[in-house]
Amino acid sequence: MDKYVIQTEAKRCLECKTKPCVFACPAHNNIPEFMKKIKNGLWDEARAIWHVTSNLPELCGALCQNENLCEGACTLNKIHKPVKIGMIEKGVSELFKDVIDYPITKNNKRHLVIGLGPAGISNALKMAELGFDVEAIDSNPKLGGTVYNLVPDFRFDKIILNDIQSKFDLLNIKVKYDTYVGKDIFLKDLIDQYDSIFIADGLGLPSTVDIHVDHLHVFYAQDLLNKYLYSKDDLISLLGKNVYIVGLGNVAIDMARTLRRLHKTVHIIYRRTIDDAPAGKSEIQAAIEEGVVIHELLGPVSFKLKGNDKVLDCEGTCLIKSPTGGRDIVQKVPNSETSFMIDDLIFATGQKTSEVLFHDSGVVQTPEISPFATNYSHIFVGGDRVNKNKRIVDAMVTGITVAKQIAEGIYETNR
């Protein structure tokens, strides 16, 4: 990206003293100071400021839901023209894609990362920079986790992951790809081989939905988007013309936009409203502009055969205020049933963890001590296993946080 374009946008920053963008960012990046350095052409200093709190700007800049986070909190959002913080972050990351921070000294301690999604990547990079000998294990043939497996190519340029792999190579981070912990190798055999272990294997299983399905096959978006399981040609032949998706998170939107590019008719049903959706507003708008129809305040009840037709029965919902002040409660609306004749039904209602990795290891999470802790003082967990929001930036933060804890010797006090 051209420096002039980046600098021109950065000059719009007001450098607010209250720093609302900083508080809205889960990583608490020092955005005003970052913008100030860019304005003055101090590119190295800008990169150094960002690197204190974020080591995956190439992912966060491209995939963060900035309109719900930093850009949403930008003072200029009051006139609907927030500073394009994500664009600037991504642009600066491109300028420094070959730059890494080598460790000043090595400590000769061995560290293992299990899972190379955003949390594992950030942890591995930070631990290597802190002087640890880092090794990693991942079940896929490339790093990236769900970013590589599930995010469609039209939304993210996967070549960026090659740049991250180059950083791994420069930092001498050794990776065993195509290796599944819990099947090919076992956690119990790794426990005593390393001074510290970070488990960031993500959410491997799709969440189920409680509806009645009568002798029909349903699909899960997490599986259909996985390029190791299905190609575009597979999806064309596997699914009928008229497809309905349940859910309105990023995976649902990615699934919908992918199917539109395959010339499918796509409808999304969601029990809440678009304003409540986990997916980014810009992604939802893009899906609508591409022809995806979204049905708000509608929930699935059953999927069954009526003669030769596949019928999805739904019911209307409404939202009532939670007495505890939390998220609004979904309530069914009496006598609001409606039905759709469809070809296929896809669930995109979230993911859940698989416990295969922990099998027969004796390792268990101990959230009462810390969200990252286990009953082994040198073994930590992170990423979507501990993140409520399941966002890339949150995963990255857990990776960096755990790295700093290990480097400060916090885990040693529990041994």
* Number of structurally distinct domains: 3
Helix/strand structural class: alpha/beta
* Percentage of residues assigned to helices: 25-40%
Strand order within the widest beta sheet: 3-2-1-4-16
Question: Would you give an account of this structure?
Answer:
The protein is of the alpha/beta class and 415 residues long. It contains 16 helices and 16 strands. The strands form four sheets. Strands 3-2-1-4-16 form a five-stranded parallel β-sheet, with helices on one face. The longest helix is centred in the C-terminal third of the chain and has 16 residues. It is globular and about 70 Å long.
What's the gist of this structure?
The protein folds into three domains: 3-95, Fumarate Reductase Iron-sulfur Protein, Chain B, domain 2 (Orthogonal Bundle), CATH 1.10.1060; 110-204 and 353-414, FAD/NAD(P)-binding domain (3-Layer(bba) Sandwich), CATH 3.50.50.60; 205-347, FAD/NAD(P)-binding domain (3-Layer(bba) Sandwich), CATH 3.50.50.60. It is 32% helix and 19% strand. It is built from 16 helices and 16 strands.
